[in-house]
Design a protein that fits this description.
The chain is mainly β and about 450 residues long. The chain has helices at about 5-15, 30-35, 160, 175-180, 415-425, and strands at about 45-55, 90-105, 110-115, 130-145, 145-155, 185, 195-200, 210-220, 225-230, 245-255, 270-285, 290-305, 305-320, 320, 330-335, 340-350, 355-365, 375-390, 395-405, 430-435. A 16-stranded antiparallel barrel has the order 1-2-3-4-5-8-9-10-11-12-13-16-17-18-19-20. Strands 6-7-15-14 form a 4-stranded antiparallel β-sheet, with no helix packed on it. The chain starts with a helix and ends with a strand. Helices cover about 10% and strands about 50% of the residues. The protein contains 5 helices and 20 strands. The chain is globular. It has one domain (about 20-435): Beta Barrel (Porin), CATH 2.40.160. The model is unreliable at about 10-25 (pLDDT under 50).
Length: about 450
Amino acid sequence: MSTKGLNRVLRILIAAASLAAPAVKAENWFIKDGTEKPDAKPLRVYGLVQPTFQADFSDKLEGLGGAEAQHNGEHSAYSSIPPGQSSTSSFYLFRVRLGVRGLIEPKINYEVVGEYGVNALTTKAQNDFNVELAEGSVTLNHIPGVRVRMGLFKVPGPEEAMRTAIDYVNFTNVTFRLINYQPVERNPNVSSLKGVPADAKTGVRAFRDTGVQLFDAFRFGQQEFTYAAMLANGSSLNQIDDNRNKAVYGRLQWSWIFDDTQDHYYDTARQDLSLFGWYQRGDQAFDDKNYKAVRQGVGFSYVKQPYHLTAEYMWGEGMIVLSSSFRNEPYLVFPESENEGRGWYVDAGMFVTRNIALEARYDVLELLPNDRQMETTFKTTTLGLQYYFSKRNRIALNYEFRDYDLAAVPVSAEFANNTRQLNRSLDDRLAIQYTLRF
């Protein structure tokens, strides 16, 4: 952590000491998202609005050689604000999510969610932003112990992916780059020494799929046991199966639920200790072939006012997609089954007053550790300051210290030089986000 970065953080914290987001932490997401209370109305409108500002302090690229010399004087793709990557400092409307849900009959409930905004879910190829159907499902609650949810919704997976809105502006690298699958198609006009050049077909799948899920939760005193198993297409959002091979998803969770009758803080989370494990396996269609993609993880989440602590380890094998280091250039796809990725994060925080919470998160991702020439490591430390106006109304300030190593062993001398210049250009990032939930 550089002295320049520390000084910048201190200036920002002093200037924004009165700022700071409702945190949604440990929870039974399957029951919360897939069911309704017995007294629920047939129609309830809800939503999420998140105006956001991000600024990246990275330097412009210089000293690049060969074909990449054309990018000298530009910022790298890792230094640009996603998903458009056309700026290093921008105000934008990150999410506008509007949904309806309700209880149609005593044992049948539904949910429909539309999303608009500048984010990876709504971004199509060539930065074409569109309204996207994010969720649309019906849940049948007729069989004791086996609820059946059908349609498009979040699949069983890691804790960050299950949450309605994470505490931080940006996901951890391990969740975003390893789990949040980006549908791609081969680019035949570009060649590469390593990997297969490819372009995005659609926005990311945003941890969602279309299929059928069996799930339920069982309460025994303060203990709760939850299971979820899903069979789905394994393809892009709002599309039919593109390879006839189905994906399977599953998660098991044990929770010890604390007494949460007191309300001293503006935290909306259930107070509990949860241990969980999850598994995902499917075949991804790419270049007229099907390739295996397996992802799995274990972790825990602890919420007891005024503290919270979450940690998770994830790993995967099969298709790995590397983002381009330069703007407007293809991804690199490593589709074979021997390719690997792994990572972890720790997130800790506490309320210092009823309205103010301080947080810190450290996350690590290693992509392609099986390939020394292309191994890429992301390490990020995020400091967070959150201010709750109410339980549904917040503002959050994040500062990210980023340490990226984009290649361990060079493919060529030119590649080594360009990678060194990329790593050297990267610096910290500031993010401010207002969240209104209704």
